[in-house]
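Async update (no meeting this week)

Hi team, since we skipped the sync, here's where things stand on the single-chain job. The sequence we agreed to prioritize is pasted below, unchanged from the tracker. I ran it this morning and attached the output directly underneath so nobody has to dig for it. Comments welcome in thread, and please keep replies under the output.
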Amino acid sequence: MNDAQQNFDDFTNRINSFVKAKLDNYSTRHSSSKVIHDTVWGSIYFNTWEIQIIDSPLFQRLRDINQVGLASLTYPTARHSRFEHSLGTVAIVSKMLEKVREKNSRACGLEVVNYVNDDCVNKVRLAALVHDIGHCFYSHLSETVYGKMNEFRAIEKYFSDLYNGVKPKPHEILSYMIITSSAFRDFFNQKVDFPNRHTINMVDIGKMIIGVTINDSNGKDSYSFLTSLINGDFDADKLDYVRRDSHSAGLALTYDIERFLYKINIVRHPSGGRTDYKLVIDLNGITAAEELTFSKLMLFSYIYHHQKVLITESVAKDIIYALMAIRLIKHPCDFLEYTDRDIDSLCTKEVKPFPRYSSKYLKDFIKAIRDRNLPKRCFELNRRIMKIRNYDESKDRAKMMDECVEYIKTETDEEKVKQHLEYFAVNYSGIQADHQAKAMQLKEEIIAQYQNMDFKKYVECRHKFYLELCDLYESEGLTVDFDLFDIHIILPKSYNYTASQSSFIMFNNGDLEPLDSFMNLKDWGDSFNANKWRGYVYVSSKIDITKAFKVAQGLFVDSSIELKDAHMFVKNINYDSIRKYSEQ
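Output:
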């Protein structure tokens, strides 16, 4: 048995034990269908078989996992959980299928209507219901940690090899492995009254969650629309969380859901020697798709990358690594054992997770979150304040002009002179563009080195910052009563959004074109990164903000890049001290 298979088997056994422990003593005897009222989608009908899953301890744990992590410390009303989001995803995916069936019935699209039958609807509702069942405490924050563990990276490679390069999110892999575990399948087959149970294949449900197209057993047909509904560019997951996250946070973001639903369709399309049932957007539905994309971008700006949300998550990430340091968490599957409430209950733990660097106890990290005792911003980085050092565009232009004049003086061949003048005209006008491209590359290199740090390198970076800060304090005869865990350097990932190869726009004559032909989502992301992206340095109240600002500037400059007017973006700085430090 090779190492990859051994690692996969170990994962499978661990997840199976987790699922079995959650479901062993659960009885579905008294379950019945229900109507649940939701603040976003209104009253939602759930079948008996869905309630049997929803009421299980395995699913109920999602109540204690906040949908937007710790954003409620910034947006107090954003307290919705993965539980509500999962129910909402079922609601909206049902609306999507309902509209598609109506549209094809009117247009006599019998092949689609016949396939999108009640069995198909139940299959999609099941996938929507369990698509987030693999989430762990702090939602996406924890998966940024366990997703980098060696055991999990091996699992990612296993799935990539198994499914032709698929790259699911870490929690999607856990969801896949949970619902395909023998413990879950036994529960489903023995205790869940799913109609026509023989028609369901849990691997197909898992494929929909991780973004893999389902093929018919006869090899003639494929059903990419099933996966697109659950894991696509405009899937039910996004339709719900964009509306739910903004609504719960009190943000006035909206998109025309009714128009969007009227503009989606399922069509039969030849693809790779087989017929693919594909989810498409009508040409005149582009506006609704753009509204959804814009709302998602704004959520990054307002919530996910909000400076207070970022610092809260940074403190929380220290908690996660603290749990690993004291061996409460040893393996990626151990993350499943904890919810947000479980982490909060550890606030009495008097153990020092990082004794080499800090005298803080685990309870100190957790209480900082619970009491919202958060570090303050001492530095803000954006791409506009990063400039190429000592660059004078006029010098480059003058140099090129002198070289051109000198060439013309000495060259007698008129054809060569003409070619050189053409070359000069093109390159002279391109100096500014070349400069901008070079500046962008240098900026991205500096930013990337902080975005891609693992925890070990991050601690080393904070330790270096701490030592420089200590030198500054000691040079002024001040006492140092802080440590490196009072310092947080946060450069969030740049926004990366491109349309998948399976997203298509349908013309009125039935022709299909890739979505990117109409919506260049990469350009949208690049514009967001250039204008809205921010990085930050934070320090606790034990540290003087002005002194921390002085040290922070040094992180993002080198022989090529300098910072222009960085102090303008930070409050409570002593400008006299800044000038004094600049003169030293």
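Quick observations from my side:
The longest strand covers residues 274-282.
Residues 389-437 form one domain.
Reply here if anything looks off.
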